[in-house]
């Protein structure tokens, strides 16, 4: 399936180009993932590390950037 062609571009040409780009990107992705899987330096985890969800140390909490979602519920948006 091809996206709608816009402007003066022939629809068949646009579809052919899109299909070539998508096919090329699929090949590139497969090659990248294959090389990643063949890498024998890193060991892939099957389970998360022990205590991966423990609380952050105090010094990290002090230096943490505040979460934008946890800030005041007052809106700073001005409509004029």
Can you tell me about this structure?
The relative contact order is 0.06. This protein has helices at residues 11-38, 58-62. The protein is flat, with a radius of gyration of 25 Å. With 80 residues, it is mainly α. It has a domain at 1-41. The protein has two helices and no strands. Helices cover 41% and strands 0% of the residues.
**Total helical elements:** 2
* Poorly predicted ranges: none
Helix content: 40-55%
- Mean pLDDT score: 81
Largest sheet: none
Rounded to the nearest angstrom, the distance between the terminal CA atoms is 45 Å
Number of separate strands: 0
Class from helix and strand fractions = mainly alpha
Question: Features of this protein?
Answer:
80 residues, 2 helices, 41% helix, mainly alpha, 0% strand
Question: What is this structure's SSE topology?
Answer:
Elements: H1 11-38, H2 58-62
In a nutshell, what does this entry contain?
This protein is mainly α and 80 residues long. It is 41% helix and 0% strand.
């Amino acid at each position: 399936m091809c996206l709608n062609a816009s402007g003066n571009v022939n629809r068949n040409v646009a579809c052919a180009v899109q299909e070539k780009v998508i096919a090329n990107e699929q090949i590139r992705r497969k090659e990248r993932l294959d090389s990643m899987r063949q890498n024998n330096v890193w060991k892939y985890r099957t389970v998360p590390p022990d205590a991966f969800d423990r609380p952050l140390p105090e010094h990290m909490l002090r230096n943490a950037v505040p979460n934008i979602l946890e800030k005041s519920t007052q809106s700073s948006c001005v409509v004029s």
